[in-house]
Amino acid sequence: MQLRDLRNSVVVLTGASSGIGRATAYEFARCGAALFLAGRDRHALHDVAETCHRLGGQARIVVADVSNSDDMARLAESAVDLAGRIDIWVNNAGVGALGPFEEVPLDVHEQVVQTDLLGGLRGAHAVLPHFKRQGRGILINNISLGGWAPQPYAASYSAAKFGLRAFADSLRGELRQWPELHVCNVYPSVMDTPGFRDGGNFTGRAIKPVPPVYDPRRTAKAIVGLARRPRHSAYVGLPAILSLLARFVPGYSILNAALVDGSVRRARPIPRSSGNLFQPPGGERRIDGGYRSSRLRQGVLVAASATAALMVGRWLAGKR
User: Fold this and answer.
1) CB within 8 A of 320, min separation 6: which ones?
2) What values do phi and psi take at 213, rounded to 5?
3) How far is Cα 320 from Cα 316, in angstroms, rounded to an integer?
4) Which tens digits make up the pLDDT trace of 115-126?
């Protein structure tokens, strides 16, 4: 399939102020796209838009919250009113909350689902009428590893991501008679973003991601790659191996929980917080979280691959 030229393509991107969203905005801008950047932090969006202009793209900002249906409808209407169409819509906004399920307040769990699952549904609901009227369009969902591998101590996040994957599959079936309407999912592994710093944390400890941790720009390139050549799924990092373990290896969740327990016990104490769930976070908004270690990366990858192979081998031996 011939790669699409993204120059002057109209792209709507949620969660554009930091992390994967910020990196994705810059990647689209390098392609000459016309961006509508959505997020809750006006100042951070202005910074992203200015950089997009310097990189060769066009950018407008729309202060909008994916947990608000009216905001999503207004976002779609703004893009169509100003640009005449929407070519690509990226459901990227996401939040998380760590902690034992019953110790995380219920309204925090609900907000995670509001953002990570219902936010994606709201985005799709807002843009699909425009796609159908145009007869074409690309919807890209940033689902993450959490859509395949359940994450202990992040129960509502896992539920939302599993749900978003099911929603995308269902929607794809409904659109089978619209060959130029594409529903694409990207599944990044653990990315080095400020999400661990900014998200809700009810463990009482300063949690860091378990390696391997990847450069979020890799996910940005995968998202732009889906816009250039739409397909059902794109994987970044090791999600394919981990999803296999989660689906076929008994006790995967127990092992995963044990790894998290060990990480929590070693971490320094901090106050519990709902983080960025109900308002934009303080501090510098950027792409990177500062968790990558180049010296350990290769060794960790080898160890992770060997562990995965060992677990699968043991399970297969047990089945035999």
Assistant:
1) none
2) -115, 130
3) 6
4) 999 999 999 999
Distance of CA 10 to the CA centre of its chain: 20
Q: Is 286 exposed, middle or buried (0-12, 13-18, 19+ CB in 10 A)?
A: middle
Q: Distance (Å, rounded) from C-alpha 234 to C-alpha 185? A: 6
| Largest Cα–Cα separation, the chain | 62
Q: Give residue 278's region: left, alpha or beta (phi > 0; psi -120 to 50).
A: alpha
Known catalytic residues are 157
Q: Where do the H-state alpha helices sit in 64-177?
A: 69-83, 106-113, 119-134, 155-174
Q: Closest Cα partner for 140 from 162, 159, 123, 118?
A: 123
Question: CB-based contacts of 284: which residues, under 8 Å, 6+ apart?
Answer: none
Return the sign of the alpha-carbon dihedral for residues 265, 270, 275, 281: negative
Cα–Cα distance between 9 and 31 in angstroms, integer? 9
What's the chain's Rg over C-alpha atoms? Answer: 19
Q: Which amino acid is at 126?
A: A
Residue 104: pLDDT over 90: yes
- Three-class DSSP category at 170: helix
Question: 140 Cβ partners below 8 Å, 6+ apart?
Answer: 88, 89, 90, 91, 184, 185, 186, 223, 226, 227
183 CB neighbour count, 10 Å cutoff? 22
- What pLDDT does residue 302 have? 42
Cα 279 to Cα 40: distance, rounded to the nearest angstrom: 8
Classify the phi-psi angles of 71: left when phi > 0, otherwise alpha if psi is within -120 to 50, otherwise beta. Answer: alpha
Q: Which of 6, 62, 2 is nearest to 223 (CA)?
A: 6
Q: Residue 259 pLDDT more than 80?
A: no
Q: From CA 14, how far away is CA 114, in angstroms rounded?
A: 14
* Least confident piece of the model among 81-85, 149-153, 219-223, 311-315: 311-315
